[in-house]
Amino acid sequence: MADIRAFRGFRYDLGKVGPLAGVVAPPYDVIDSALQQQLYDASPYNAIRVELTKAEPGDTDGNNRYTRAASTLKDWLTDGGLQQDTARSLYVYEQEFTVEGKTWTRRGFLARVRLEPFGTGRIFPHEQTLSGPKADRLKLYQATGFNISPVFGLYPDEGEVFARLAPLMRRQPPIEATDHLGVINRLWVITDSSAISAVIGLMGPKPVFIADGHHRYETGLRYLEERRAAGEVPDDEAAPNFCLMMLVGMSDPGLIILPTHRLVSGLPPLTKEQLQAALAGHFEIVGEFGTDAAACWEHVELEGSQSVLGFGTVADNQWFAVQLTDPTVMETLAPDQSAAWRGLAVSLLHKLVLEKQIPAATGSTGECRYVHLMQEVMDAVAARECQLAVLVPPVAMSDVESIAGNREKMPPKSTYFYPKLLTGMVFNSLKRD
Question: pLDDT tens digit string along 356-374?
Fold first, then answer.
């Protein structure tokens, strides 16, 4: 069973550091150098200074961005800019945001969650991880002894967990910050011991599926191993046994998975007729839309099927949609995967189209750039930044639950849970309770 705990989080003293909007930051994996500088300029207390500290010329093993992050965090604790809450709490975190003209509200809560190796308990990953980001996060954990940003976890529910928290939220105004994308982020601190006990009891039997933050979770496991080897984990209640996690119910109306479209470059010029000929063996054309990319995407969305893909050929600016006619081909191409995995649109696209049919037709595999909004696709096509655009339907929550629950990992770039969770709402110590 998942072990969920209230904890004494570390939060900014807004009376000292100023408005929350000036000190929060996105997670490290979506920050470029320009945004990094923008956040540095926002405040000397901005979380970017520990989440993604700037590298400097002459950095050494003893003086580098990780040691500077640790020094910065220590200074904030010393001068009172960052303070630990006195009571064990759960932290309700709500995000209000707009996508493609529609407004959503997603709500979850931050807690400590006991770490357990994948495959041994009730916490399930759904994506593969890379060694580079894990090495980076481990150095940060080692230097600071903190979870700077949370893992994003999902749990099956019928709304029963938030039924215990909602009445308490109405008793206090939230702390609020609007980020650089216009997302409104709100935080409530829940200290009521009866409500906390009820939530922990309800969460106990539930599995948790990691939506985002796989690298941070696996880094937590590695950090725990290191601390155990160093004799710094005296018992199962010691802080390194846990990680900071945002938990969102799978039925939450604001939990959306954005599509991840592919912009393929490195191919020779490709026309609609050439691409349709390449796809003919396993797909049928289910719609032709001329130069109207939006109409093509509308068709893919309305179909609501993982077997339908949209294509735009940049050489002649033509759009069309296809549907798989021969699902058995995936049994040959991915024999070790489950039927659910083989049926994903991203699996069809990569295993069949990009790794087999496109190379056979063009002699090249091409390279993918990933975008989430139709405007990004249309802008790239108009600028001729790629030779092929592929519109990919998003996976459903049921797909994530089914595939992760089978202890499989989905293909890369299968999911994009928007918006990202901000860093700086709450920090979690890996050294003290």
Answer: 999 999 999 899 999 999 9
pLDDT band with cut points at 50, 70 and 90 for residue 15: very high
Cα end-to-end span (Å), the chain: 22
d(CA 340, CA 420): 27
Task: Of 338, 422, 370, give the one whose Cα is nearest residue 149.
Answer: 422
b/e 108-135 (16+ beta carbons within 10 angstroms → b): bbbbbbbbbebeeebbbbbbeeeeebbe
Pairing of strands 151-155, 242-249: parallel
DSSP state letters, 355-388: IIIHHHHHS---EEEEE-SHHHHHHHHHTT--SE
**Contact call for residues 424 and 23 (beta carbons, < 8 A):** yes
Of 225, 315, 241, 329, which is closest to residue 282 (Cα–Cα)? Answer: 329
Q: How many angstroms separate the CA atoms of 260 and 372, rounded?
A: 5
As to burial, measured by CB atoms within 10 angstroms (0-12 exposed, 13-18 middle, 19+ buried), residue 137 is buried
C-alpha to C-alpha distance for 317 and 289, rounded to whole angstroms: 10
Domain ranges of the chain: 4-256+418-429, 261-395
Q: What one-character-per-residue DSSP string does 73-131 give?
A: HHHHHHHTSEEE-SS-BEEEEEEEEEETTEEEEEEEEEEEEE---TTSSSEE--B---H
Single-letter code of the amino acid located at 127: E
Model confidence over 380-425: pLDDT tens digits? 999 999 999 999 999 999 999 999 988 898 888 899 999 999 999 9
Single out the residue of 397, 116, 103 nearest to residue 257, CA to CA.
397
Listed in sequence order, the residues at least 6 apart from 317 whose beta carbon sits closer than 8 Å to its beta carbon are 291, 381
Please tell me the distance from the alpha carbon of residue 353 to that of residue 330, in angstroms, as a whole number: 11
Residue in 15, 252, 217, 234 with CA at minimum distance from that of residue 116: 217
Residue carrying the six token digits 């209000």: 96
For helices 193-203 and 160-169, the axis angle rounded to 10 degrees is 160
Q: Are 173 and 188 in contact (CB under 8 A)?
A: no
pLDDT digits (tens, 9 = 90+) for 129-172: 888 889 999 999 999 999 999 999 999 999 999 999 999 999 99
Nearest to 402, CA basis, from 116, 1, 124, 115: 124
Separation in Å, CA 368 to CA 86, 262, 364: 48, 6, 12
Residue among 142, 118, 144, 143 at smallest CA distance from 129? 118
Instruction: Give the pairing type, strands 123-124 and 208-212.
Output: parallel
C-alpha–C-alpha distance, residues 428 and 148, integer Å: 7
